[in-house]
Amino acid sequence: MAAAYDFDLFVIGGGSGGLAAAKQATDLGAKVACADFVKPSPQGTTWGLGGTCVNVGCMPKKLMHISSLYREVQSDAHGLGWETKASHSWETMLANVNNYIKSLNWGAKTDLRTKNVKYYNAFATFVDPHTLTLDNGKGKVETITAKYILIACGGRPSVPEAPGAKECCISSDDIFWQKKPPGKTLVIGASYIALECAGFLAGFGFDVTVMVRSILLRGFDQDIANMIGTYMEKHHCKFAREMVPSKFEKLPNGQVKVFVKDAEYGIYDTVLLAIGRTGCAGWLNLEAAGLEYNKSSGKIVCNDHDQTAVPHIYAVGDVIQDQLELTPVAIQASKLLCRRLFGGATKIMDYTDVATAVFTPIEYGAVGWSEEDAKKKLGKERVKVYHCSAQPLEWNLNHERKEDMGYMKVVVDLAEKEKVLGVHILGPHAGEVIQGLSVALKAGMTKEHMDDCVGIHPTFAESYTTMTEVKEEGMGAPKKG
Ligand code: FAD
Ligand code: NA7
């Protein structure tokens, strides 16, 4: 008897979530296909298989961040006896980063072929709840059916209403592929993509200003957000506070004139928008599947089993409403979903206490609640905050860094034997440090566990094992731990 559907699972989107789902499902014996198609950015940038993380997100961002840190590392090295200072080539970095990304695109495609996942380089839209059309953009249109459909189409950078924004500005979809050095740059937005991009551009020596509408790093611990701002300001990055652009105009020489309240604010070689991201659900003709989505966020509501309002249609990753937009989150949710669909498993995604890092020039790693969150959720009386400042050893010998400080904060619940609710670290390799602490936090660590732990000397992170100072209400960072 012929199968009722062409595929057991059809995945829309070959990014972090989609590829993980396709591979997990096929490993469990399902007949799987995946469509990935990249619509060019308004500036015409496009890329290969692998989604945001690989092409225009985590990977190029982290490589450029690491590259930019070498400026400070060289200055530290000077204090340790090294004489020379090297110069940086945007063009060389870009060519090498782009070639590396292309190798990842190739690897992703080979992976699908090896695992017998049918890959369509085509744009998918719904015809009915079990049927999709696949348009390869070159005249080939196919129709397929699937028992289960997984929407993993991610999101794209939002564009503000201000006239000229679309024509004059670039976004994170462009900067990692832009062959020309960006020059004098205005970054608009103050969340982590904005600050990370501003940070690495300033690190390369470009003249960079960040235009901030309200606060830095909304949703993150605000003491630390402000310390990042102070550090970046000291390290070659300017901030224009409480401002939004009202208009953009392209000048004949290609530069962009930026207006605030319709008065000229400045002229820039590059204006980079990083004002958040919009889900791509609006592209899928979801109405044909009987599925609704949030028209302003472009996202889909799912239950805790990743299931949409149409039971055989699921969604994971950045396209889900009100969830963390992070690669490992999309991957984990996808794998667990496919194990439930095809492997008889029952475990669902746990979105709590997911560790994250902000790769600003001084890195920030966090897991669990911020001080603000903890006090809002439990009340001020129940929350105690330990903190300390510490200086990485190598900064001590660099006279330009005498004032630079790292910082750590541990938020605990007084009603639960000082169970740790949140850990925050600001300093070198914060992402690496917080990853280990996130396991401990997940396992129910208390402050006593931290105190009982013997530190590794001399490291920056050892300060976690010796924290005694309690943060009083309204207190800033202590001078030195
Ligand atoms: P995506 O990876 O975006 O994949 C979706 C794919 O579907 C895309 O290829 C898209 O073109 C395709 N598609 C869309 N519609 C269709 C359609 N109709 N038919 C076919 N294909 C379609 N996360 C971290 O964990 N750490 C970081 O350091 C980090 N840094 C970031 C830096 C930047 C600048 C950005 C933008 C993001 C960063 N992220 C980071 C977030 C991370 O990249 C995303 O959370 C992750 O890629 C989401 O995966 P996804 O599978 O949901 O979607
Ligand atoms: P976020 O986290 O959504 O933050 C958006 C930032 O842009 C934030 O600072 C906003 O300021 C600011 N914003 C939003 N709209 C505007 C307008 N119209 N004008 C000026 N500034 C604005 O975005 P990101 O891009 O950093 O990250 C998105 C996700 O992608 C993130 O979770 C990653 O995991 C991947 P506000 O604080 O609202 O005043």
From TrEMBL:
FAD binds at residues 62, 318. Residues 354-467 form the Pyridine nucleotide-disulphide oxidoreductase dimerisation domain. Disulfide bonds join 53-58. Binds 1 FAD per subunit. InterPro entries: FAD/NAD-bd_sf, FAD/NAD-binding_dom, FAD/NAD-linked_Rdtase_dimer_sf, GSHR/TRXR-like, Pyr_nuc-diS_OxRdtase, Pyr_nucl-diS_OxRdtase_dimer, Pyr_OxRdtase_I_AS, Thioredoxin/glutathione_Rdtase. One of its GO terms (biological process) is cell redox homeostasis. The keyword tRNA processing does not apply. Its cofactor is FAD. GO terms for cellular component: cytosol; mitochondrion. NAD(+) binds at residues 189-196, 276. It holds the Pfam family Pyr_redox_dim. The active site is at residue 457. Coiled coil: none annotated. GO terms for molecular function: flavin adenine dinucleotide binding; glutathione-disulfide reductase (NADPH) activity; thioredoxin-disulfide reductase (NADPH) activity. It is an enzyme of class 1 (oxidoreductase). Keywords: Disulfide bond, FAD, Flavoprotein, NAD, NADP, Nucleotide-binding, Oxidoreductase, Redox-active center, Selenocysteine. PROSITE patterns: PYRIDINE_REDOX_1. Catalyzes the transfer of electrons from NADPH to thioredoxins TRX1, TRX2 and TRX3, which in turn act as reductants of disulfide containing proteins. Able to reduce nitroglutathione (GSNO), a compound involved in the transport of nitric oxide (NO); however, TRX1 is more efficient in reducing GSNO. Has no catalytic activity towards oxidized glutathione (GSSG). PANTHER family: GLUTATHIONE REDUCTASE (PTHR42737), THIOREDOXIN-DISULFIDE REDUCTASE (PTHR42737:SF8). This is Thioredoxin reductase.
